[in-house]
Design brief:
This protein is mostly helical. The chain is built from ten helices and no strands.
Length: about 200
Amino acid sequence: MTADFITQATLALGDREGEKAMSMRRIAAELGCDPMAIYRHFPNRAALLDAVADSVVDEVPVPGEGGPWDERIRVVLTGMRAVALRHPGIAGHIASRPPLGPRGRRVARELFVALAEAGLAPGDVVRAFQALIAYAAAGLRMAVDAGVQDRRWQQVSAAMEGLPGEALPVVGSAEQFDYGLRLLLSGIRLEGERAAG
């Protein structure tokens, strides 16, 4: 039994049965082994889920250099959100602990390169990256927790009646995420222009 085999079996279990099924005992039962066999590869559940989260990053489209910097960022972050939501067992973990394994670091490098192309100073590249990751994580968490027009959405909609705008977007929806990301990218563009003088 290899670490990769355990990671893929855990991902498949989460895809089928959701986040609550991904306990060490349940994963061991799925693999037909003692939980201690898993601990030989992963020191704890968080480390295993980190590996699972990093494994799904392979599915995120990474456009590479060549296109406009803002479009590349948009493709990566909307791709990460879509990939995480395709894997319901690990989506919440990705929202709370963005992947830092080799695949996650590869995607982070792409974002850093794109932000540098926006004209930001090196320190602002780091701050903008942190803002984008925080936004993406919060948007994913909202999508995991809500994402539908439920009773609470109806209550909030009713409370906002008479305010500007038509329909209230669903909390955690792709529409809401895309709008907020557009605002962030516009702000980054302005910061880059200001830095260029």
